[in-house]
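User: Fold this; tokens only.

Assistant: Input:
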Amino acid sequence: MRALLDESLPRPLAELLVGHEARTVAQVGWRGLKNGALLHQAAAAFDVVLTADQSIEFQQNLKTLSVAVVVLVADSNRIESLAPLVPKILESLRSLQPKTFVRVGS
């Protein structure tokens, strides 16, 4: 699965998503894009966007896009807090469908 990590997530998280092509917003040159523009760009090149923005579900009409969204819920956006979520992230990516929204974490 082609996964895009938004600016709020640390780059090392991409390396932990074994078996998936994970890139960061910075790597693809989309730094500074607002959520709506980012999701539209991502829909053309990625299967899923991973974010820590818990309000994205309410700010965007995700059903109009072909991309899925996974929101990571942790104590912080540091890799130390997110790494324990990796098994559940990988599990959700295995069954994720386009236009779906999933929360992973507490």
